[in-house]
Amino acid sequence: MTSLLSYKYYDTPEGQDIFFKTFACSKYALLAGITAGAYDTLMFSHPKGFVNTAGRFMWHIGPLVGMAAGFAVATNASQNIRGKNDSINYFIGGAVAGSIFSAWQRSGLIALPAMLLLGFAGVLKKNSIDENWSFFPVAQQATKTIQSVRHDWTMVKDIEELKNWTTGN
User: Does the predicted model carry a pTM greater than 0.90?
Assistant: First the structure.
């Protein structure tokens, strides 16, 4: 179970361990769904009772997890069927997620734009992985953090010859 929770999507090559990859995508979608559900119930819908509150949460969680699982399964299945590891697999996965999104919103009008938008987002993600760049690079926020002891923020190193003091006894 711990290997399932600690698994990252790119731990294995594309087309392998589809269940693990689906779970890796779905756990982040679950967290996003819980956040969206909490925001909706607290700010907008104000449901009364446990059943109505759980229904509002599931209205967000279910489709988001379905979109993530659909992306992972479609991407890896197209990798296995086509036998190529290219951006078209990610476009197919994004198109599947876009079709699930349009079904969630009950609007056929947004089906094609959602499929294209999420398909191109998948292609962008594939290119970022292939070319080794990140959407959200890790940036140092401040010099005084809990991990700042690991960094040397001095301008120059101490020069032993210029030290004219002693440590004492």
Answer: no
